[in-house]
Write a structure and sequence with these properties.
The complex is a heterodimer.
Chain A (H helix, E strand, L loop, with lengths): L6 H29 L21 H10 L1 H32 L3 H12 L5 H14 L6 H26 L2 H9 L4 H30 L2 H6 L8 H6 L10 H22 L15
Helix pairs in contact in A: 1-11, 2-11, 3-6, 3-8, 6-8, 7-8, 8-11
Chain B lengths: L1 H24 L13 E7 L4 H17 L3 E7 L5 H10 L6 E5 H9 L12 H6 L2 H4 L3 E2 L2 E2 L2 E5 L2 E6 H6 L13 H10 L6 E3 L6 H9 L7 E4 L2 E4 L3 H15 L17 H5 L3 E7 L2 H8 L6 E4 L9 E2 L3 E5 L6 H11 L2 H11 L2 E2 L2 H11 L5 H7 L3 E2 L2 H4 L3 H17 L5 H15 L2
Parallel strand pairs in B: 1-2, 1-3, 8-11, 13-16
Antiparallel strand pairs in B: 3-14, 4-5, 6-14, 6-15, 7-11, 7-12, 9-10
Amino acid sequence: MIGRPSRTGRTLQYVVLAGYLIFLGFPLVWLVSTAFKPPRELVQLHPTLVPSNPTVQNFVQAFTEQELGRAALNSLQVSLASAVLTVLVALPASYALARFRSKLGTVALGWVLLSQLFPFVLLIIPIFLVLRQVGLANTHAGLVVIYVVWALPFALWMLQGFVRNIPRELEEAASVDGASRLQVLRRVVFPLLAPGVVATALFSFISAWNEFFFALVLVKTPELATLPVALARFVGIEGTARLGPLAAGSLLATLPSLIFFAFMQRRLSSGSLAGAVKG
Amino acid sequence: MLRRRFRRLAAAAAVAVVGLGALTACGDGGDDESTSGPVKLRFLSLAWQKESLQANKDLVAKWNAEHPDIQVEYVQGDWNSIHDQLVTSFEGGDAPDIVHYEASAIGEFSKQGYLADLSGLVSGDLKGQIDQGVWDTVTYDGKVTGVPFLLESQVVVANKKLLDAAGVAVPPADGGWTWDEFQANAQKLTKPGQYGVAWALKSPTNRVLNLALNFDGKFFYTDGGRTEVKVGDPEKEVPRRIHDMIYTTKSASPEALGMSGADTLPGFFGGKYAMLPGSVSLRQQMVEQAPAGFEWVTLPPVKGLSSKQAANPQTLSIAEDSKSKKQAAQFLEYFLNPANMAALAKGDWLVPTGRQANEELVKLTGGKQGWDVAADSAADLTVAPFQLADGYPEWKTKYATPALQQYFANKITLDQLGTQLVDGGKQVLR
């Protein structure tokens, strides 16, 4: 039997945890610091964490020069649509893959995962030509279609894992109690799948939010540019960059993900199945 | 409770489907050319500095106001992804009408027939403004596929107070130091806690090949249609001198080896390095980021047998697929007239290729902030053999950069460097 950790052990645990938190959080803290520094403070031999003369000039520049507000809105639209559509397509497919085992299903899943191995550069020109044929080149809809297709394999794989974790006995018990197939899905499966759905939606949202290459190549009109494309314009030749506005813009770019996680992390706890089945 | 959740899910689905429909409306959905109305040109620009961006946008806005029948749409690209963007655009048949890039990079597109020959499209006046040596950098198989408009020379930016303290006099704008004088002065400026020079050599190839022309080092030699890399005494001169400064006289900082030009600025402003050899555009960072009271000065390019450097101008090209080449050329003529070219160069802190634009710029700035040196350095810029060599980008990435980095890190000898460069050439040159 394992005893409770001693006070020293617990203190050590907290120290390690705090160290880990600092390690993870420091880049974000430094980003905030850089975003508020005037140009002269960005090239000090001994940089300070707290800006001596904090300024919001970097934000003003970022928003006026590159219209980051509009770019963020574009990214938000595309990412939300991609996340919702990915979940909508992946949910029934993953249930079918997990519950109705067959060789065909296994082969399909294998193929879906294999398709992830193709490099972007190999696919971009054919994709561009196809999108142009169907009138979706240079539209957000075209971008959403690509993002959904891109996120689906991983979403399927992830969600079917969640489905498999739901004991079949729960569904059988509901059926025995007289629930129809649809009722079983609605009242038993979907509620238990919520963490998986949230995780999948998060994954799809973030991968669309951060995606750069397709957004760069498929969308030509400046008004439709997404945030990563707009941010790249602060970077110049051979790695030179306008650090201030870039940091300000990057800070803005991290906020939605942070907010999204803050609100959704509770739903990610997958302890809801604990004790659902005896034995 | 569960029913409410299910309804929410259904609502989200409906929103997504409706949203996708709405998103389809965001965009032009295709590329149908309108047959009536004004001619529309798409201009992909790589301007990224604040002033340069403003200068570009202002000129386009002015053009659009003055030419309602030819409207230019300004699209900002970025240097890091422009190559992929252009490859896709050209292959997909959706290239911008006007493309901003650089001479060493447009060769590949020229040879594939993606860029229009501008020989008959630009005026004799514009042609006459730019030296033939600079036109040569954009001439492939007899076709001129870009208008060179901004040049980047290699100068030296120095901390004036440290020069004065060491008794080192600033040379005049039209008479730079020889390499021997530069090395001797770097030594004078070196003392505990301070190096005379910081050579930022994170990406050493372009810089070494540019400066190698000082000693007539060509690296690429063509004989009977076959190009090969040769590394003789002229080619070894510049790397050897830089290496000596780092390891023999110890007047150059070893820690700067892995830095880009911008990375050396904190040390320069902090008095750790007295001189920064680098691009003429470094002056922009001086003006924007130097601490209050910091005195800096631009020294002319260093001289070997000559002050020659490789010119790799920024260029404006017209896509071969453009349906409005004539109008695009008209826009280029306007965009690059002497006054406008001077404004563009000022915005980017670079040297204009046009003689008249160069004069205008010196007048406009009074030659201050190193503009006199910048203007004089233009005369030394010319085409270098490596710029016209097929396979140069691959040779640079796979062989030259790693070999030079090893040499400057003192891991291999000068002869081994030469061998690696020559062997790399054999692998990639066609």
